[in-house]
Write a structure and sequence with these properties.
By secondary structure, the protein is mainly alpha-helical. The protein contains four helices and two strands, in the order H-H-E-E-H-H.
Length: 73
């Protein structure tokens, strides 16, 4: 079920929001960040954020700023 939701989400949300808000760059999203963690929210599209692998890594390395920007709840 997750792979189907992920695929749909990335088709609908094609812009990497982390790169857009952090670096001011328009990059195509390829990865899903889970703003409330995976666990019980793995399939919860409301917690998905379109990004790239690099964007997801930035979020995890910059927790304070990522939380300020709403990438982590």
């Amino acid at each position: 079920m997750y792979s189907i939701r992920r695929e749909w989400f990335l088709k609908v949300n094609q812009i990497d929001l982390v790169s857009l808000f952090v670096f001011g760059k328009l990059i195509r999203s390829t990865h899903v960040h889970h703003s409330k963690g995976r666990g019980q929210n793995l399939n919860n599209i409301d917690t998905f954020i379109a990004t790239t692998r690099e964007g997801d890594e930035w979020v995890h390395k910059n927790l304070k700023k990522a939380k300020e920007l709403g990438f982590i709840s």
